[in-house]
């Protein structure tokens, strides 16, 4: 199906899509006058997201395949991941699940996705998850002359009973967009916790286990908004998105290039975010901004044992023979020099507003599909 549809896509004049190769993997390039997004049909990952006006065309996505190639190492994360989808699974599996063939992080990011429909500004992919007996549909929309991507997803259960699901958007930034001491992450959260773990603290993990704190200050470790000044660390935290908001945001700014990546999503769709802060000594840095329906990448049993956390459930239900829908926006933009914090991201009419209240500055991005995420 994909080989039949791709040649037809080459004739689309606006927000065009075309077949490309990215780090040896087949991909589809979505582009318009402002941005370029490469999607890998195997697994549906967003492997590259760039701004046309950026003279360096810096990829804001984590690209472990490129990093391994440049370091003369074998890739230890598989194909270029960028932002990939973890459903129905997030993190490790139990021994019985492993014996039954269920992979870590779920099936969706490992299977070929079928491109089913395409217009001049959108494309829809579908994939069946045979082990968990679910069907996933994902629609990607990029309107002409806009630098915002709308992603709409639907997960349908084939089974006749309710169950807990795991769903995380494994949005991840990496070097060179991610730099030591120079990349700043902001988000609409208040309550956070360091990831619980068993046994003694070992290896590059430096944060204590299961310590509650208010974002962004972790006692003894300082302000977590800024990437660490030195490498050889790896930590996780889980944060509850702000319950007072209808829409939540996460942004990352490279203060050296003044380039920003951002996400906006309904809180009812994604109530949690896990931060995976991975800074190996070889320089292949990654910071996972993994917004989803649970606080951590772990088993369902462990998640259920944590609930409630900060007064909120740590899971979502997928009911019998039903569908669950979720949406988010992703955007990339240049920011003025000195624009080093984000206090709010919101929709105002047909615009997306990014605001730095301290300096009384804002960035306005047109967004024609605003009604689809209200």
Explain what you see.
This protein has 374 residues and is mostly beta strands. The protein has a single domain (2-198, 205-339), classed as Beta-galactosidase, Chain A, domain 5 (Distorted Sandwich). It is built from four helices and 26 strands. The protein has helices spanning 2-9, 64-70, 95-99, 300-306, and strands at residues 17-22, 25-31, 35-39, 46-51, 84-87, 114-118, 122-129, 134-141, 148-157, 163-165, 167-174, 183-187, 189-194, 212-214, 217-218, 222-223, 233-241, 247-254, 259-266, 272-279, 286-292, 316-318, 323-334, 344-348, 351-356, 361-366. The strands form six sheets. It has an eight-stranded antiparallel sheet with strand order 6-7-8-9-23-19-18-12. The protein has a seven-stranded antiparallel sheet with strand order 5-11-21-20-17-13-14, with no helix packed on it. It has a four-stranded antiparallel sheet with strand order 1-2-3-4, with helices on one face. Strand 25 and strand 26 (361-366) form a beta hairpin. The longest helix has 8 residues, at 2-9. The radius of gyration is 20 Å and the shape is globular. The model is unreliable at 1-14 (pLDDT under 50).
What's the SSE blueprint?
Blueprint: H1 2-9, E1 17-22, E2 25-31, E3 35-39, E4 46-51, H2 64-70, E5 84-87, H3 95-99, E6 114-118, E7 122-129, E8 134-141, E9 148-157, E10 163-165, E11 167-174, E12 183-187, E13 189-194, E14 212-214, E15 217-218, E16 222-223, E17 233-241, E18 247-254, E19 259-266, E20 272-279, E21 286-292, H4 300-306, E22 316-318, E23 323-334, E24 344-348, E25 351-356, E26 361-366
Antiparallel strand pairs: 1-2, 2-3, 3-4, 5-11, 6-7, 7-8, 8-9, 9-23, 10-22, 11-21, 12-18, 13-14, 13-17, 15-16, 17-20, 18-19, 19-23, 20-21, 24-25, 25-26
